[in-house]
Amino acid sequence: MTRRFFGIPIVALAGFVLLLSGCGVFFGSVEPAGTASPTPTATTATAGTSATSSTTAVAETATPQPRRTAEPGRERSLPDVELVLGHIEQLAVVIGSREAGSDGERAAAAYIEGVLAATGYETAVEPFTTATRIDSSVAMTAGGASVRPFMMRGSATGEATGRLVYGGLGAAEELAPLDLEGAVLLVERGVLPFGEKARNAEAAGVVALLIANNEDGVYSGTLGDVPAGIPVVAIRQAEGEMLRPLASRGVKLMVRASIDEIEVTSQNVVGRAGTSCEVYLGAHYDSVPEGPGANDNASGTALLLEVARVHRAEGVCVVAFGAEEIGLFGSQAFVDAHDVSGARLMLNFDMAGRLDGPVIVGDAGLTEELLDALASAGEFPIAAGVFPPFASSDHVSFSEVGVPSVTITSGDDPAIHTSEDTAGRISVAALETMLGIVDVVLGSVAAGDPS
Fold first, then answer.
1. CA distance 360 to 348
2. Same-domain status, 218 and 246
3. What is the DSSP letter of 358?
4. Burial of residue 261 (number of CB atoms within 10 Å: 0-12, 13-18, 19+)
5. 85 and 158 in a common domain
6. CA distance readout (Å), 253 to 15, 200, 239, 258, 447
């Protein structure tokens, strides 16, 4: 899932460096991932607590069965959660981090293509190049430790130095009693939009703003439609906790920001069953660099591969999107390169591994149709909904060109975009529930009775 703000894609911004006391920071390079075999291997996953159970179970070691591709005139096979676990193992454990443009992302694309080809789809890997913004130099000098921030989109570039002041959530009433002229302000994420925090800080005379996360992990964001006149950067929760005591000591910090653009080459993996695309099934397979992206979105990709196996039929097209985490670039590249206007619908899967409030997000009419089909089939724990603040997914690219589109997601997981998004947190019960939901949806309203 990519984080967004007021509908604007949030670019994953790298290359930010905060240096305290003039200490240098060395960035570790991403180790190339090994080439993954297109055959799923066994996996062991610890099942998290699902929305329908208070117990924590451990999945048995999954031994994927031989592929059972449906042939004309034969009854299709049922969804197999063991195959889903095998795909998650390959993507999140064997390959690991799948940052856009990386060896890991390319290894994942090769694996996905191999699975789709073995399932009977005509496959293609479609490269695309996009420019992504990075911060080439951001530094804070104060004393003692080092942290690495992510600059907000809409932040000013340049250099600013001032004493560190802590300002709570950055609300105007919190800042009013503080002496902030010429200060570097530290505030917490939450309650107020990032842009409002920045405007409040700038109005109070602040020369740079640091916004500390209110949960574990990294994040980024945008300031909305109004750019700031000061540098504004996001930092981790632990980094904010480390910096906060410095505010009471009047430590001076220096913030320097500049913007470069780099080109990232990614790829979409496409599988077609027949000559036309009436139904699109999609999921992004890239991850953020900070973690293996087991739930976001190895789980959605694994679900995609399994429902593609079960529901292969004339007119079904499968697309695994690259470079979603840095701004929905894969899905945008696909709709730019192909005429998708003849499609009846697009179903996107983004996070399927934990039941944290499963929802269908997107086109209202299609959502209602899918929920009606689910209601007729039984009781399923899913409803119409919206993404959390600052989030979106690849169905949007299809919606913008007129295709009824939704994302089916198991809910907002606080571990995504962090090193904690591992295969050990995947809930087998959640995967089974999501498989059941998608199987009903496709069987009832999308692809009919696959051949």
1. 10
2. yes
3. -
4. exposed
5. no
6. 19, 20, 14, 17, 59
Other C-beta atoms within 10 Å of 265: how many? Answer: 14
Q: Which of 224, 257, 290 is where one domain is finished?
A: 257
Taking alpha carbons only, the member of 161, 154, 157, 165 closest to residue 140 is: 161
Asked if the structure places residue 389 within a domain, the reply is yes
Total count of domains within the chain: 2
Is 314 within a domain? Answer: yes
Tell whether 196 and 219 lie within a shared domain.
yes
Q: Is residue 427 part of a domain?
A: yes
CB 221 within 8 A of CB 152: yes
Any idea what DSSP says for residue 291? S
Residue 211: which of 272, 167, 154 has the closest Cα? 167
The two beta strands, 252-257 and 158-166, are antiparallel
> What does residue 335 show for φ and ψ, rounded to 5 degrees?
-70, -25
Identify the domain containing residue 221 by its residue range: 2-28+138-257
Whether residue 37 lies inside any domain: the answer is no
Please name the residue that has the structure tokens 């069953």. 273
Same domain, 127 and 147: no
* Type of residue numbered 66: P
Write out the two tokens for 382.
């899913």
Same domain, 291 and 353: yes
Q: What is the mean pLDDT of residues 251-255?
A: 83
Q: How far, CA to CA in Å, does 243 sit from each of 25, 101, 149, 179, 282?
A: 17, 33, 12, 18, 42
Contact 312/119 with Cβ under 8 angstroms? yes
Is residue 247 within a helix (H) or strand (E), and if so which, with residue range? Answer: helix 237-247
Same domain, 232 and 374: no
Virtual torsion, Cα 350, 367, 387, 14, nearest 10 deg: 40
Same domain, 344 and 437: yes
Residue 199 is part of a domain; what is its CATH number?
Answer: 3.50.30.30
The answer to whether residues 243 and 363 belong to one domain is: no
Amino acid at 4: R
DSSP state of 423: G
pLDDT tens for each residue of 148-184: 777 787 888 888 889 999 999 999 999 999 999 999 9
Look up residue 82 and give its two tokens: 């063991």
Q: pLDDT tens digits, residue range 185-243?
A: 999 999 899 999 999 999 999 999 999 988 876 676 778 878 899 999 888 888 888 88
Only one residue has tokens 């007129």, namely 402
